[in-house]
Amino acid sequence: xxxxxxxxxxxxxxxxxxxxxxxxxxxxxxxxxxxxxxxxxxxxxxxxxx
Length: 50
Prior knowledge:
The protein is 64% helix and 0% strand. It is mostly helical. The longest helix is centred in the middle third of the chain and has 12 residues, at 19-30.
């Protein structure tokens, strides 16, 4: 099983109430250092910090 397949498998076990955390985190991973995060990403990252 590839690492990507493992991520998909784990994603299926995450409760809907925590999906927004993953979206924010994954968006953060995909941002080029020169890009500025959008409001949704900033809100998700702030939510993770609290």
